[in-house]
Write a structure and sequence with these properties.
Layout lengths: L15 E7 L18 E6 L5 E5 L3 H14 L1 H13 L7 H15 L9 E5 L5 H8 L3 E5 L3 H11 L2 E3 L14 E7 L8 H9 L2 E12 L19 E2 L2 H10 L2 E10 L5 E9 L3
Parallel strand pairs: 4-5, 4-7, 5-6, 7-8
Antiparallel strand pairs: 1-2, 2-3, 3-9, 8-11, 10-11
The structure holds zinc ion.
Length: 277
């Protein structure tokens, strides 16, 4: 089938076996306009590294451009409401509060001092709950977002500096390097996440780090309807495939952890630094 997501994996597809097949959207998935095309997709799973690769012939870029905000949030007002609801969750129910605590604790261990306003680049900032909370903790935040209406939301509602360009173009804009570059539930949406991490590496300070959150294949135990396997995800990761992804991008994982988030999501998180060799 159509798209060919890659990890530049040494397996080269030799160890792929078909896993889940979908002839209809699972409950809860964003209802994209398929323009009359049949809903058909599947996941292949690598028996060596445990990574799952999404396969289909649908044009997701087109889908995002047309109706992502409307289909997911019911427009900009719905997006604001969702942002405010998540920001108001009590800590024990908030994925974001726990994420913020993890990331700040790691930054502290790296010797990054919040009192001097370290710099965060949040790639694919979306609703903006992560940059909003980091800004509150003293970080100078830049959000990257290419969806026009999400950019509007980030500027007007979240109130963070937002650049409307792809990560690959950041180098040309000669920005100051960053202490932290974050990819929260972003890498699974792109066909080639290795290239994205390589582009990020070039924008990182020496003592800086990259924080990654991706869906975890552990969700497969609960069946194909899980949100980790929704249509937007070209990739679902295993701890081994996160390590492989890091290595291919010339990054070293300091930690890779599995967690079940308060929202119920099966998630892997990883802290990556630039390899010394
Ligand atoms: Zn593999």
């Amino acid at each position: 089938m159509g798209i060919h997501p890659t990890l530049h994996c040494p397996c080269q597809g030799r160890f792929l076996t078909p896993a889940f097949t979908y002839a209809a959207a699972p409950a809860g998935e964003t209802a994209f306009d398929l323009q009359g095309r049949p809903y058909l997709r599947r996941y292949d799973h690598c028996t060596v590294c445990g990574h799952w690769f999404g396969r289909h012939d649908l044009d997701l870029d087109g889908l995002y451009a047309r109706d992502y905000v409307d289909a997911t949030y019911g427009g900009l007002a719905g997006m604001r409401q969702k942002f405010e609801t998540i920001m108001a969750l009590p800590p024990e129910k908030s994925d974001n509060v726990q994420r913020i605590a993890r990331v700040r604790a790691f930054a502290l261990r790296r010797g990054i001092d919040e009192s001097v306003c370290p710099r965060l680049l949040d790639v694919g900032a979306g609703l903006g709950v992560f940059p909003a909370a980091m800004k509150t903790n003293g970080w100078r935040v830049t959000a990257l977002e290419t969806d026009a209406r999400t950019v509007q939301h980030l500027r007007a509602v979240v109130g963070v500096e937002t650049l409307d360009l792809p990560l690959a173009q950041m180098q040309e804009s000669a920005a100051e390097p960053f202490d932290l570059i974050a990819f929260n539930k972003v890498l699974e949406h792109v066909a080639d996440p290795v290239s994205l991490l390589i582009a990020a590496k070039a924008l990182l300070l020496q003592q800086g780090f990259i924080y990654v959150e991706v869906p975890d294949v552990a969700a497969a135990a609960e069946g194909p309807e899980r949100e980790e396997f929704f249509i937007e995800h070209h990739h679902v990761f295993s701890p081994a495939s996160v390590a492989l992804l890091s290595a291919r991008a010339g990054l070293s994982p300091i930690s890779i952890a599995r967690l079940r988030e308060p929202s119920g999501k099966f998630t892997l998180n990883a802290f990556l630094t630039v390899s010394s060799s």
